[in-house]
Amino acid sequence: MTSLDRPTTEETSADTSADDARAVTEAALFEAFGGVRGMVETVLPGLLFVSIYTVNKNLHMSALAALGVALVMVVVRLARRDTVKHAFSGVFGVGFGVVFAMMTGNAKDFYLPGMLYTLGLALAYIVTAMAGVPLIGLMLGPVFKENLSWRTRNPGRKKAYTKASWAWGLILLAKCAILFPLYWWADTTQLGWVLVALKIPPFLLAVYLTWVFLAKAPPPIDVFAEMEAEERAEEERKAAAEEEGEGAPAGRHRRQS
Fold first, then answer.
1. Domain total for the chain?
2. Which region ranges are annotated with the description Disordered (predicted)?
3. Ramachandran angles phi, psi of 186, nearest 5°
4. Which of 82, 178, 195, 197 has its CA 20 to 30 A from that of 149?
């Protein structure tokens, strides 16, 4: 290999920085969206509901089993002192579905609150992207320790967040376009199995596109590190001022002597 063929230090450093940025992005997305465990907690209650209902057509048993497993997952997270936001969101979603289905007596209504939530979330992604405040940026900004700095100081990341929000919105709208007609035309088991099948693939596609957009974007501005640096600089200025203040009287005393 000639000297021209060897990678330069700058190229190696750039490759390392790019790899680090991708790793940070992957870790942040994994944390924000719950990872494999979060996906399991999202799918399991609905899977249990449709499985039991397919076998015995018993709404009460199916609904209570789904709610029970959601509560168990919360208790397990609490016992292990893990983050419970994903498990709690699952409990609330299942709880609304159970209440709604029990009130109407229609097993398909177990899925309706979640479907309406998906539709509302899709519209929120699209509207915020159009307004220049993409929802995915509001969600991931604190995870990347950049808060809202991307809005005014990092236009490349704002563009990436906007693209990601559009991707999430359109993917969720496509999911709704499949589910809502089935809610009216299909029976409970058909709707349930399709909904379970559509839980993970659209989610993974949206997360992958978000990763692609952010991996190509400029790195986040760590506003927490900036605030800590400003605090240290302010403390150093105060210490220097105190030292000057203590040294000044001694200097005047020597001149008077």
1. 2
2. 1-20, 232-257
3. -95, 165
4. 82
